[in-house]
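Internal ticket #5521
Category: modeling
Description: The requester needs a full-assembly model to guide mutagenesis choices. All entity lines are attached below as received. Residue total reported by intake: 222.
Assigned to: D.W.
Attached entities:
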Amino acid sequence: SQQGEEDPQALSIQEGENATMNCSYKTSINNLQWYRQNSGRGLVHLILIRSNEREKHSGRLRVTLDTSKKSSSLLITASRAADTASYFCATAMSGNTPLVFGKGTRLSVIA
Amino acid sequence: GAGVSQSPSNKVTEKGKDVELRCDPISGHTALYWYRQSLGQGLEFLIYFQGNSAPDKSGLPSDRFSAERTGGSVSTLTIQRTQQEDSAVYLCASSSEIEQFFGPGTRLTVL
């Protein structure tokens, strides 16, 4: 079963703009991870944030986590056409237990 | 080093046939996961192996599904008497700590 929801379900922006995707979840978590998927195949790990962290950065990515609201956001700055993909958040209740995925956001970056 | 590999890349089978899907995890990773991604169901956990512990089979949808992991490395997911609703992309992941690394998946089509 799905842990939560991402919103929006789909997002279309111009190259150079920022993209923000949100994720909500239902249960207590140990960590939350964001993944990217191109063409419906393999998932690429983007960034992990632990439950005791509030914000992390990696290159053009910024992730926030609000455990009181059970929500997270992924910000991609200065988007590029190559960022076009589906983005999923996934939560783990502890350590390396199986991930529970959201439904994903389809991002289209128009050149 | 090499990532997670899966074979075959694509599999087309007839309803009622058995299929075997293979996963080669990253060398040294103690945890191995199988997930399924299908239209309408999103990404869902199937089964999880951690070291020599008994696998967590709580995500398997029916007793037609089984998996084994030999020698703590390669894993095979077997689906017996396939049904059309088994059509999906089957993803394998491995991890040594928290971050999970995904393979490219096997697209299974049941006619």
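Resolution: model delivered.
Comment from assignee: The interface with chain A takes residues 31, 33, 35, 37, 42-45, 48, 50, 56, 59, 89, 91, 93, 95, 97-105, 107 of chain B (CB under 8 Å).
Ticket closed.
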